[in-house]
Amino acid sequence: MIALNKAYPGATGNSQDPWLSATAFADLAGISDWAARKALARALEGRIWREIRLEVRKVKAGGGPKGQRYEVRVASLPPEFQDRFRSDRNQPLLTSEPTHTALSTVDSSLPVAVPAVVTDALPPVLRPTVIMDDRAAWRLALIQPIRHGSAPGSAERAAMIRAVAEQELTDRTGRRVTISERSLRDWITSYEADGIAGLGRQCRKDRGQRRVNIGRAWDAALKEAGASDEQMAQTVDGIRNDVASLWRSGTPSWPNVQLLAKPFVTERTKAIGVSVPDEVLRAISVLPRAVIEAGRAHSLVAVKEKDAKKYKDKFIPRVRRDRSHLKPMEWIAGDVRHCDVAFTREDGSICTPKMVAFLDLATNRLFYRIFLKSKGEMIRREDVIEVFVAMCEDPSWGAPTSLYVDNGGEYNWGEFVSDLCKLKRSITLRDWQDVEGDAGMRKAKPYNAPAKVIETIFSILTRSLEPMMPGFIGGDRMKKKVETEGRPPKPYPGDFKALVNSYLNLIGFYHNKPQSGHLKGKSPNQRFAEFIVDGWKSITLDRTELAVAFSKADARTVLTGGEFTFAGTRYRHNILVGLVGGKIIVRQPLFGDRAQLFVYSEDDEPLCTAQPPEVFKFGDIEGAKEQGRRTGALNRAVAALKDDSEVIDLEQAMARANAAAGPAPVGESDGVIRVRKFQPPTEAATAAPAKPALDKAAIRRQMVANLRSA
């Protein structure tokens, strides 16, 4: 292989398509040799390095494992590294050997003195063009005893190189390393040929200066056309802004930006006012990838505006939370999970079981239950509460101090917080990110999966544990497993009871598996056992109290016989026979025996537990007996009320009440108002009037007049 670059002696291949060794790549990237080899090994497996997919190969070379070494293609490196490689390759080199002290033996523990050079105090001609860092000084300290203690190509030099390569050395960072014979020979060759430049990274010739070009062809064409440096600089600024705007608008890849940016480059180049042939203008308007990649950071704006999930998962900085101080049940996280195992229902349909789980953040233990739902049916609030109650009853778990739940509909417990706080032990429910919230129900923020700690444990089940179960279908429903590709998945072979036992075994294995993080290599069971030894004890809750706390309350009126209706069903209790017509508060539990109702007075005082009344067949003697018992209960209730009161003469009580009220008030008249029309007649007016005499002549005249008119 032919070395292409004196500044990077590990470069091979032709000048148009160079490849770098791991050591040269480390120098270029400013990382350690070990980190460079690890990065290239990962890249050879197809992994990403700094959001870039590197092109890596293995070539035969002395000194590496099995006589091979990694090489990376320069064209696949990030644009800034490519620019640095091209720039450094064209730099003038310092060939003068610096003053040094010859070491009689190789001792990596000796401190290496690096002379400080104040470059600003030197004239520009004398300023060094090589960055003298600790790496170059450390390498120089290794090779100088070999150079001065042996002749080139001699057996003595080979023996000294072999002796150094067989030692475990301490590098400049304090890490224990070994150096291959090939690396030592390369360093000696580079140093004798190029001086300190062979061991250190060179400075850019235009370091500290503003570089305004967007390509050699564009620069050359514009200068030949007579454009000034100021005009070109302004145009380049505009083009870079166009590139940034294309990234910011959501252009997905650099080739797309390159094609979309071509009209912008053409228009801005024409706006300078110089004459450039059309065929040349079309050629120089294609931006280099380095210029395009320089504006990629602006794509973050498009990600935030168009892909909220990617923005939250990948870009939002997350604070680290320490859980080593937590005690068991101090913080519990709850969530619902769809298991990645196919199961056959009784009707023959394929489904995935559902898991309701609570995670103890102190020990990473899981309390869970498996549910098998009908087609189209999801986990309900009642299912989640059933698991929560079972956890509160278990002595190894008990009541949590703080509960962090999901934002989903299964955890709509907000209306039950007031009842939950009436328990003997108050439970604080908070949002993991709402640390300043008041006590009460708090949920995870919607569409914020990274904030849910329990999701990490669910991921472990999918990736590491469930693949060992029959019927595993993988976490991605869109990707078929190799075993069943193109065909329906093979379901779990057993019944639901067998599935529950399989998960019991799986979660037991998880509890016995050592974990990193705050468990520090201990399993959840081991960490929990340590807390028990230290005296930790749970605080359990009574199931009946939990049933009252998690219940649906409604007001009802007591009917004849101590009965009332609830959800279309009649309920009764003997205690209620004496409260006919009164109001009661009825609570129905959301789990367990929901046919049993808790009855309270209007003042929220507990009265009884009501159940649907028994219905007897006609002629059944037990019905008559029950009728007698109910009548007896009513009679006893009446007798109890009779004993608490006395008979009172109500007529006498009314007289006493009237007497206590005093005599009725009597009013006085201030005068009489007369109305002439309605005045009573006098004696003269009421006497019989005299009968008038008949006027016969008048009567005749009237008759004659009537005849004439007729």
How would you characterize this protein structure?
The chain is α+β, with helices and mostly antiparallel strands and 710 residues long. It is 37% helix and 13% strand. It has a five-stranded mixed beta sheet, sandwiched between helices. It has a four-stranded antiparallel beta sheet with strand order 1-2-4-3. Strand 6 and strand 7 (176-177) form a beta hairpin. Residues 1-8, 91-132, 413-418 and 429-443 have low confidence and may be disordered.
Main attributes of the structure:
710 residues, alpha+beta, Nucleotidyltransferase, domain 5, 5-stranded mixed β-sheet, 4-stranded antiparallel β-sheet, 21 strands, 13% strand
Count of separate DSSP helical elements: 23
Major beta sheet, specifics? 5 strands, mixed
State the shape.
elongated
CATH superfamily annotation of one domain: Ribonuclease H-like superfamily/Ribonuclease H
CATH-defined fold name of one domain: Nucleotidyltransferase, domain 5
Query: Mean of the pLDDT scores?
Result: 76
Q: Give the strand line-up of the largest sheet.
A: 13-12-9-14-15
Assembly state of the chains shown: single chain
The Rg value, from CA coordinates, equals 48 Å
Low-confidence stretches: 1-8, 91-132, 413-418, 429-443
Beta content comes to 5-15%
- Helical fraction equals 25-40%
Measured distance between first and last alpha carbons? 156 Å
Summing up helix and strand content along with how strands pair, one would put the structural category as: alpha+beta
CATH architectural type of one domain: 2-Layer Sandwich
What's the count of strands? 21
CATH class of one domain: Alpha Beta
